[in-house]
Specification:
- The structure holds 2 protein chains of 2 kinds.
- Helix content of chain A is 36%, strand content 19%.
- Chain A is an alpha+beta fold.
- In chain A, strands 5-4-7-8-1-2-3-6 form an 8-stranded antiparallel beta sheet.
- In chain A, strand 4 (231-239) and strand 5 form a beta hairpin.
- In chain A, helix 7 crosses helix 10 (142-165) and helix 10 runs antiparallel to helix 11.
- Chain A is globular.
- By secondary structure, chain B is mainly α.
- Chain B has 10 helices and no strands.
- Chain B starts with a helix and ends in a 28-residue tail after the last helix.
- The chains are: A alpha+beta, B mainly alpha.
- The interface between A and B is large, with 71 and 95 residues.
């Protein structure tokens, strides 16, 4: 993670035009994506410039493909497994090759940095659904639940990306790395952790905010519906009810919204997400749709 | 571009025909016949786009096939709230074509074909405008760009070049390439936006914060 390209707000903004045209090198694209996922400031240029791109399709001159291509295409499609919908409520994520529920418990009892890799995941057990895995942990202590949530998220990421990327992790490695770091941090008693739960339009969402001592924190939310057109999710640090923007969040192709590199505002006791206009807001304009209180897990709970 | 030609990718199919979005929904439910219908609608545009980017008919066929495999695999993940089916399908085709041409360049990194194309990561905030565009309007707007802006956008989007490659090809500093692309896109937006006075600033937000687009013409 340490050698990843990191962009300032201005640098990311400067690349907006090339980003929306798909004209950046892979590491640059990744750096822009990461910045957008973690930056608290507005980047209206991306939506502004990206909205123009479909107009370029109007300049395409149609050319009839060779007659035999239709049969080739239909033949190719016939053998391909489809990916599930991102909404885990509508279509539980059934991950061929992902670890089963038993493996989730295994992760919670073992150091998270030894959690299964995507390659190992492919060797393991039966398909699971996220909601079924989560139910196994209802009633446990907050810390156990935090670990379980982290484990489930890890499964989602690794299993999901395993299906999506097959043998080419590419930039997904960065995302998995961020999640691994967050999960590893969640096992540290000095970390602050918030279990996040959705409500209202995000009732199916859940997640974890992890703030390791002396290191940047991460917020991960699963089960959020994609933000509506012209809207975005914005994360907030709340200290005695006073909000400070943590950054904008969007739902990735893996179904997760991830915000990393966070430094919580002083006195933060709650993490919350609101639905805001694209570009974000200076302060929340509506009620939180996802929220959770920050606290220290106890050492005894970790040991237990 | 004739109406018959644009029939390769109609925005509004004839009455009683399923919409593109409905076909993607059918595909998401595993109905492969929907892919056949989408193929009939879009093969011309997709093959035309792939040919334009790859300049290789055989490779363009592979791109179209690969794009349909991607459409099939990801059909359940398509969201009409984020982009029209047409934009989604053509963006996938574009992304796969760029992937294909960069694979042929030994020094280039390969974009991940399963990652959403850049445009699709953004809300489609302009569907009502894009839905009314036609080729003539877009070509006119492109003609209004400075030659260097037009060239930069063409090389970036339709030749699959990265900013570094554009800079080398045009012997232009990297910063100038960024500027040309950005200002060119903003000018395009401003030109295509309805109700905008193209000569006097109008209501377009394209020049906001960039010192006015008029000054960019010919100089960016």
């Amino acid at each position: 993670m340490s050698d990843r390209m990191r962009l300032t707000h201005a640098e990311a903004d400067e690349l907006a035009g090339l980003f929306v045209l798909d004209a950046l090198e892979v590491d640059e694209m990744d750096a822009v994506r990461e910045h957008l996922a973690t930056c608290g400031g507005p980047h209206p240029a991306f939506a502004e410039l990206g909205g123009v791109v479909p107009a370029l399709f109007e300049t395409i001159e149609p050319v009839d493909a060779p007659a035999d291509l239709r049969a080739r295409v239909l033949g190719a499609v016939a053998g391909v497994e489809q990916l599930p919908a991102l909404d885990s409520k509508a279509a539980p994520v059934m991950m061929r090759g992902a670890p089963g529920v038993g493996a989730v418990a295994g992760v919670s009892a073992a150091p998270a940095n030894r959690a299964p890799t995507s390659g190992r995941a492919a060797e393991l057990g039966a398909p699971i659904s996220i909601s079924a895995a989560r139910k196994r942990y209802m009633g446990r202590s907050p810390w156990q639940t935090a670990l379980a949530a982290a484990a489930v998220l890890l499964i989602v990421v690794l299993g999901g990306w395993n299906l999506i990327l097959q043998d080419r992790a590419g930039s997904a490695e960065n995302r998995v790395s961020i999640l691994r770091d967050a999960i590893a941090a969640s096992t540290d008693p000095s970390s602050q952790v918030a279990l996040l739960r959705g409500t209202g339009t995000a009732a199916g969402a859940s997640g974890l905010a992890v703030f390791p001592s002396g290191r940047p924190g991460t917020i991960v939310v699963e089960g959020l519906p994609p933000a509506a057109s012209g809207r975005t999710y914005q994360a907030w640090f709340l200290a005695n009810g006073t909000p400070v923007s943590a950054g904008l969040m969007s739902v990735g192709s893996d179904g997760l919204a991830v915000l990393s590199g966070l430094s919580p505002a002083s006195g933060t006791d709650t993490i919350a997400l609101t639905d805001e206009s694209a570009g974000g807001a200076q302060s929340p304009t509506g009620k939180p749709i996802v929220a959770g209180q920050v606290g220290h897990p106890t050492a005894s709970a970790v040991a237990g | 571009m004739s109406e018959a030609q644009t029939g390769a990718g109609p925005r509004q199919p004839a009455t009683l025909e399923p919409t593109d979005e409905a076909l993607l929904d059918q595909a998401a439910r595993g109905e492969s016949t929907a892919i056949g219908t989408l193929y009939d609608r879009y093969q011309g545009l997709m093959y035309g786009l792939a040919n334009r980017i790859t300049r290789d008919p055989a490779l363009a066929q592979d791109v179209v096939q690969d794009a349909f495999v991607g459409i099939w695999r990801n059909a359940a993940r398509y969201s009409s709230s984020r982009a029209t089916a047409r934009t989604w399908i053509l963006s996938i085709t574009h992304h796969r074509a760029v992937d294909a041409v960069r694979r042929r360049r030994p020094t280039s990194e390969i974009p991940d074909p399963e990652l959403a194309p850049a445009g699709l990561t953004l809300p489609d905030i302009w569907p009502e405008v894009v839905g009314r565009l036609d080729a003539a309007a877009v070509r006119t707007a492109l003609d209004e760009l400075s030659a260097v802006q037009r060239e930069a956008i063409e090389l970036a989007y339709f030749s699959g070049l990265t900013q570094q490659e554009i800079a080398e090809k045009t012997t232009t500093p990297l910063g100038t390439v960024k500027s040309r692309v950005r200002l060119g896109l903003l000018q395009l937006r401003r030109s295509l936006e309805p109700g905008v006075d193209r000569d006097g600033g109008g209501s377009g937000n394209g020049g906001e914060g960039f010192g006015g687009l008029g000054s960019a013409r010919g100089g960016a």
